[in-house]
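User: tokens in, sequence out, please.
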């Protein structure tokens, strides 16, 4: 709730629901209103893209001179004026981390970047984090395809993610694709053709052209070199796609490990469909950002009975920490894990933040988890809530890893996003799902913001119709990641692939035996 003096101040300015402040940039319309019913200020960020997706902020992070969190405070008219005045300089995410002395002076002061280090964060990487997130540790389980890459130059696409469509009812502050078009959707045939190319056709190709490596991979994994793990994602709720049930049933007839990332479950979908998945991750949105949360609570949402208390399906939550986070939410997440019999909740910082702000947020999150008794003094999880320490890379890392200008994720992974499909009749693939959130900073007041959309001209590889070329042709750069991906969130994954490519021998590889779901990132 906004403090009473601030409520009265805003009430005296405007009648209920009247617009207070409005500003437009090339990409967004930013509007501040006073919501009299809820007695709070609301700063809405609406994309000017065709989908007009939006997020509504009610709080911001107040920082001291060293960039440390003082408190999470409500957005009043004065705060909104400051944020809007400096919005184009600070960007759509960093704007909500405000230095207290800047707010008092009324201007964003130029200051050097306050460098944060991962070692500043209370954290221990566990087998749970390695199994349920993309740390790079599972890559060695597929080592024969990287020997093939080293010796022939050809890639092997064993992992894929598909967005299916761009529909979502939520208004998350941290949305990675807020600038999307709801009408960009694919047909069932297009989805099936994409999978056929990566599953059946790729297996045929490797049996015919690379039988030695194919047999070696089969001896290690029990499978031909082909698509092994597929995640259905996109728009927040891939299960709103009209062909979802038919596609999942079709996929279940193939030897592919299926994963699902969603923030909710439409009741019209038969609950039996979810039994076809090996892995399901439920994204918890800020509770006031989701219209389908009963009474505004994530833990009251409908959960299919077929995924509760299952031993054969890994089900977990994902929660992004930010100004919307309260101890109450984190405590209810812990209780919901027990109530539903879920396996984990990974918590992390907003990936749209710059590296140093991200690491600051990670440190705040770790201290919050420790205070609630969810991690110990070293950062070791004490239950099923764990902290994923995921953060942007640096230019120095980019130059060292990609000395040839080649993204190594492209050699084994593909992400197909449907952006632009409505108009072009096809859409593009990308090496990963996180190019949309790359953000960098030159100074604390000068931020290069994330695009929050898939830009094929910048990061695209091939269209969905031409995905075969990712394994039928030698791996080659489609863009130079040193120039446009220096803030990469998957530096470790790239490092692992590069080290495998550069090995003299593969005889001494010993993949970590305790990892789950090695066919997923």
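Assistant: Sequence out:
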């Amino acid at each position: 709730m906004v403090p009473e003096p601030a409520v009265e101040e805003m009430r005296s300015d405007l009648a209920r629901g009247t617009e207070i402040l409005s500003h437009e940039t090339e990409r967004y319309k930013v509007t501040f209103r006073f919501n009299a019913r809820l007695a709070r200020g609301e700063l809405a960020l609406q994309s000017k893209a065709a989908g007009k997706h939006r997020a509504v902020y009610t709080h911001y992070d107040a920082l001291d001179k060293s960039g440390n969190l003082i408190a999470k405070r409500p957005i009043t008219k004065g705060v909104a004026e400051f944020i809007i005045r400096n919005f184009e300089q600070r960007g759509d995410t960093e704007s909500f981390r405000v230095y207290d002395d800047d707010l008092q002076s009324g201007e964003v002061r130029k200051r050097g970047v306050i460098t944060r280090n991962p070692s500043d964060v209370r954290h221990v990487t566990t087998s749970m984090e390695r199994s349920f997130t993309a740390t790079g540790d599972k890559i060695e389980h597929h080592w024969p395809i990287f020997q093939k890459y080293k010796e022939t130059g050809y890639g092997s696409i064993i992992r894929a993610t598909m967005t299916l469509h761009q529909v979502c009812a939520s208004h998350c502050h941290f949305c990675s694709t807020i600038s999307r078009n709801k009408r960009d959707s694919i047909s069932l045939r297009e989805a099936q053709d994409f999978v056929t190319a990566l599953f059946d056709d790729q297996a045929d190709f490797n049996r015919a052209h690379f039988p030695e490596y194919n047999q070696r991979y089969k001896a290690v994994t029990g499978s031909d070199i082909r698509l092994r793990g597929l995640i259905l994602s996109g728009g927040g709720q891939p299960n709103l796609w009209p062909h979802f049930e038919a596609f999942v049933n079709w996929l279940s007839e193939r030897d592919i490990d299926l994963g699902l990332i969603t923030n909710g479950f439409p009741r019209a979908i038969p609950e039996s469909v979810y039994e076809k998945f090996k892995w399901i991750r439920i994204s918890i949105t800020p509770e006031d950002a989701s219209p389908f949360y009963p009474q505004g609570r994530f833990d009251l949402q409908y959960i299919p009975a077929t995924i509760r208390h299952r031993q054969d399906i890994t089900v977990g939550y994902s929660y992004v920490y930010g100004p919307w986070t309260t101890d109450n939410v984190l405590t209810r997440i812990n209780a919901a894990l027990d109530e539903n019999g879920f396996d984990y909740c990974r918590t992390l910082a907003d990936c749209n933040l710059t590296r140093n702000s991200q690491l600051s947020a990670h440190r705040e999150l770790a201290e919050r988890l420790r205070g609630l008794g969810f991690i110990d003094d070293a950062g070791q999880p004490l239950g099923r809530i764990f902290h994923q320490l995921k953060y942007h890379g640096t230019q120095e890392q980019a130059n060292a890893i990609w000395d040839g200008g080649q993204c190594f994720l492209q050699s084994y992974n593909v992400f197909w996003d449907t952006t632009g499909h409505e108009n072009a009749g096809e859409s593009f693939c990308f090496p990963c799902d996180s190019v949309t959130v790359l953000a960098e900073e030159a100074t604390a007041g000068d931020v290069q913001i994330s695009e929050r959309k898939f830009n094929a001209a910048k990061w695209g590889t091939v269209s969905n119709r031409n995905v075969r070329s990712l394994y039928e042709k030698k791996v080659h750069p489609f863009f130079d990641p040193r120039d446009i991906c220096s803030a990469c969130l998957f530096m470790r994954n790239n490092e692992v692939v590069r080290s495998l490519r550069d090995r003299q021998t593969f005889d001494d590889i010993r993949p970590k035996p305790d990892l789950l779901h090695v066919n997923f990132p």
